[in-house]
Amino acid sequence: MFANKRLFVTCGTGLEQLLKTEVQTILTEHTGALITAGSSGVDIILPGADDSQFMRCIYQLNHQSRIASRVLASLSAGLTGFRCNSEQDLYSAMYHSDIDWTKLIPLHKTFSIHSVVSREHPSLIHTQFVNQRAKDGLVDRYVKDSPTKHRPNVGRGDFDIRLFVTIGPSSTFGEVDTKGFRGTVLFDTSNMPLSKRNYRITADVQAPLSESLAAATLMFGGFYPPGFAPTSSFSSSS
Question: How many C-alpha atoms does 77 have within 13 Å on its Cβ side?
Answer without folding.
Answer: 9
